[in-house]
Amino acid sequence: MTTSSVEQTAVPAHRHRVVVIGSGFGGLTAVQSLKRADVDITLISRTTTHLFQPLLYQVATGILSEGEIAPTTRLVLRKQTNATVLLGDISAIDLEHRTVTSRLMTMDSVIPFDSLIVAAGAQQSYFGNDQFATYAPGMKTIDDALELRGRILGAFEAAEVTTDLAERERRLTFVVVGAGPTGVELAGQIAELAERTLAGAFRSIKPSECRVILMDAASAVLPPMGPKLGRKAQQRLESMGVEVQLNAMVTDVDYQGLTVKEKDGTERRIECACKVWSAGVQASPLGVMLAEQTDGTETDRAGRVVVEPDLTVKGHPYVFVVGDLMAVPGVPGMAQGAIQGAKYATKLITKSLTGEDDPATRAPFKYFDKGSMATVSRFDAVAKVGKIEMAGFFAWLAWLLLHLVYLVGYKNRFSTVLTWLVTFTGRGRGQMAITSQMIYARLAVERLQSQQAEAAAAKDSEAS
Ligand SMILES: Cc1cc2nc3c(=O)[nH]c(=O)nc-3n(C[C@H](O)[C@H](O)[C@H](O)COP(=O)(O)OP(=O)(O)OC[C@H]3O[C@@H](n4cnc5c(N)ncnc54)[C@H](O)[C@@H]3O)c2cc1C
Known about the structure:
Elements: E1 16-21, H1 25-33, E2 39-45, H2 56-60, H3 66-69, H4 73-76, E3 83-87, E4 89-94, E5 99-104, E6 107-112, E7 115-118, E8 122-124, H5 142-161, H6 165-171, E9 173-177, H7 181-197, E10 211-215, H8 227-239, E11 242-245, E12 249-253, E13 257-261, E14 267-271, E15 274-277, E16 281-283, H9 286-291, E17 305-306, E18 312-313, E19 316-321, E20 326-327, H10 335-353, E21 372-377, E22 380-385, E23 388-392, H11 393-406, H12 410-425, H13 436-463
Parallel strand pairs: 1-2, 1-7, 2-3, 7-19, 9-10, 9-15, 10-11, 17-20
Antiparallel strand pairs: 4-5, 5-6, 8-16, 12-13, 13-14, 18-19, 21-22, 22-23
Helix pairs in contact: 1-10, 5-6, 5-13
GO cellular component, one term: plasma membrane
Protein name: NADH:ubiquinone reductase (non-electrogenic)
GO molecular function: NADH dehydrogenase (quinone) (non-electrogenic) activity
């Protein structure tokens, strides 16, 4: 028998494997952009949903339900057969062996990759004062928003019950720390909730007499939107009764209230039951985990990865970091940055499949700024698109349309439009239910976790 002189073409043992970490704007866009690519994708996220963070404040203030802004990722991707969705927390990324380890309860999964897209986003930063979180939750997750709803509505309930006037005043004082878009939107909505929805529903208190304070260490509201729009937003908030306190830095937070340091160094106390923190962000620790394994990629002060111009880390042309976790000059931590970064990365991965991608000659990522906006109240928003600045009803209309376009799922869009119609034209809000779990679960779980950690440490030391 003669051997064939025709050379066998090497057939790869598997399709190109893409692992995507995170199911936010960056992660979901990445997976959907690879819908027609000849790849196997594994999306791993610690949440089962794709969360539309810009509308979290509406969940916190009883307008929308959590399901309307957070569809289940595996249902969104049900028909995309090249994608597998795994629930899990990433415990390790091994760039040398090209694997990602994810943990769910006590189960570990090790998933190999040829290309990796890390879109793990950011969390709340308390600027080194993590103990503030006990009394001033942030606004990053569904849990945060539901906890906040419980705290806001719970404060009105407690104020109705107490007969102590000072305590009543404390219960009816709401402080939002951080005058960025989230802080502005939340302060405006708490004021509107009190003024419109809760009016006439209590007998001992008048909800509209509550104090809503929006506070920031900076000297302006909405600094990235410029002084003119910042002033407009401030004026509108003040006309609704919100107290805007600027140049005021929070130095302590406790159960009773918070301590504030003025620019001249003097300190004062605000007694308040309900505090919300929307003042800063810290990138996912996965950024540092990645950077430490590279030859020279750094992270910035917020823990974001200082990526190469093609959004990769040094020495790994198919390891991309996108969204809030990437540090790229001129790209803000906004949904558009994450979406555009994910599209850019997946384009390169798709080109690499046919040998058209040469990492050495890649065109750098270019961000297209589509503008930014924030609502102040119903029918009122501020928006900045390029040099165009808008405030008032037309800005609000633009805000409404844009948010509908980016909400995932037709059912969600439909129900959101209906809900907005009812809420903005009337007084009612459909999501006013609160439970003890919303208010206490986070702290109870934290206590449980630290008890478990202590028990495990004691067991270890007994054994050794
Ligand atoms: C309250 C609020 C309001 C906002 N408003 C606006 C707005 O009006 N306009 C705008 O453009 N932008 C807004 N943003 C910013 C915008 O939401 C973010 O820029 C965007 O979500 C970033 O997308 P991302 O994919 O990088 O991260 P994210 O959307 O945060 O997604 C991160 C994903 O990673 C997962 N993850 C994190 N760590 C791990 C881990 N260790 N293991 C597994 N999974 C992990 C998370 O579960 C999540 O699915 C707002 C943000 C917030 C918090």
